[in-house]
Amino acid sequence: MESSAQRRLDSITRHLLLPLQSNHGLQKVVLSSNGGLKHEEAEPVVIGGMVLDIHATPSFPANPRTTTPGKVSYVLGGVARNVAECMVKLGAKPFMISALGLDMAGNLLLEHWESAGLSTEGIWKYQNIETAVVCSIIDSSGELATAVASVESIEKFLTPEWIERFRCNIHSATVVMVDANLNPSALKSSCQLAAESKVPVWFEPVSVEKSRRINSVVKYISFASPNEDELVAMANTLSGGNVFCPIERESSTSKRSKEKLFHMLKPAVWVLLENGIKIVIVTLGSDGVFLCSKGGPSLMRVGCDGIKPCNSNEIFFNTMTASCPPKPYSSLQDSERSSFLLAVHFPALPASVVRLTGAGDCLVGGTISSLCAGLDIMQSVAVGIAASKAAVESKTNVPSTFNLAAIADDARSVYSAAEVVFHQSML
């Protein structure tokens, strides 16, 4: 039986590990080794897959039913893992909740995580788990041609019960990012735990099929980052039918008009916003990003009002603020009416493309890191796009390092070119 001392310790752990807002940023109270209480800066929490990616790149166009010379490489991956690694390399300290087997793939992923000095407390390590593996064929342009994903272990072992063990980390988090690799019950449990302490949740759709899992958790989501196809799938799921059709792509050599493109995506974006999502970030590949929200220019100030900033990343904050000073947007009508839709377009950066597989994850990681550092959503998306550029120029999903000066310069270019493409009532 449990002793009274153990019950008291469990009670303290459950009820005193609480988020506090002080003059020094969001903090949590934890037990120190001598039994006293101490304050620690809160961390973002990332919940989802850690995956070993096997990338096969043919040296020339492959023929069916035969082997093709090329290069095969092991790359550390998984949407949640990539996002978390990007955040680490930009100065944030995410707490990772995931599951790995004690096999070759799991050992590679775990060794890298430990070598970075990161906590593995939230990673379930179990011999019966077959670590998630994705085998991808990469074409000559660095795009994903096709892939086979063996990721059942994430759904099977990353359970609500495992996630519940880290209730205190989630309650005290600055933000919780969930990827849609989670099974529906784990996804809902993660979001409900965050909601108990009003912690904002970021939903990363992962794929068209898994993006539909938004349906059961949409009321908990503050941020979502779909690409065009995921956006349409999410809007159809939330609408209860095939109301919206995928956007037909024009010739890959032609640049799409951002106004025309937003006109096509606007109804689907509005469905997500009407269902309670505060910020929708639509990734458009080489066409950039749409940042969308209800209301007026108060969107530009989202950051301190949503994700509580930490102060441990002061150099990052000062560097990025100097490159991207806050914009007043005083010419816009600051309407808080729920019928207004505001959309801002950010251009993509020219890049020497090596591989595109980590671009979206680094965009999300860069954006969340920036919000956690205290930047507003406009500044943060610009930094995210700069991080994404660094990713596509790397052989790995996440670059080995980020050059802070280069990120700041690229963020400045994106930030200065951002423009409002829509600000009207949807009535």
Topology of this protein?
Elements: H1 4-16, E1 19-22, E2 25-31, E3 37-41, E4 45-47, E5 51-58, E6 70-77, H2 79-89, E7 95-101, H3 104-115, E8 123-126, E9 133-138, E10 144-150, H4 152-157, H5 160-164, H6 167-171, E11 176-179, H7 184-196, E12 201-204, H8 208-211, E13 223-224, H9 228-239, H10 258-274, E14 279-283, E15 289-294, H11 314-323, E16 340-346, H12 359-373, H13 377-392, H14 404-417, E17 419-425
Parallel strand pairs: 4-7, 4-11, 5-9, 7-8, 11-12, 12-13, 13-14
Antiparallel strand pairs: 1-2, 2-3, 5-6, 9-10, 14-15, 15-16, 16-17
Helix pairs in contact: 2-12, 9-10, 11-14, 12-13, 13-14
Account of the protein in words:
The structure is a single chain. α2 (79-89) packs across α12 and α12 (359-373) runs antiparallel to α13 (377-392). This protein starts with a helix and ends with a strand. The protein has one domain: UDP-N-acetylmuramoyl-L-alanine:D-glutamate ligase. The strands form three sheets. A ten-stranded mixed beta sheet has the order 8-7-4-11-12-13-14-15-16-17, sandwiched between helices. Strands 6-5-9-10 form a four-stranded mixed beta sheet. The protein is an alpha/beta fold. It has helices at 4-16, 79-89, 104-115, 152-157, 160-164, 167-171, 184-196, 208-211, 228-239, 258-274, 314-323, 359-373, 377-392, 404-417; strands spanning 19-22, 25-31, 37-41, 45-47, 51-58, 70-77, 95-101, 123-126, 133-138, 144-150, 176-179, 201-204, 223-224, 279-283, 289-294, 340-346, 419-425. 36% of the residues lie in helices and 22% in strands. It is globular, with a radius of gyration of 21 Å. The longest helix has 17 residues, at 258-274. The protein has 14 helices and 17 strands.
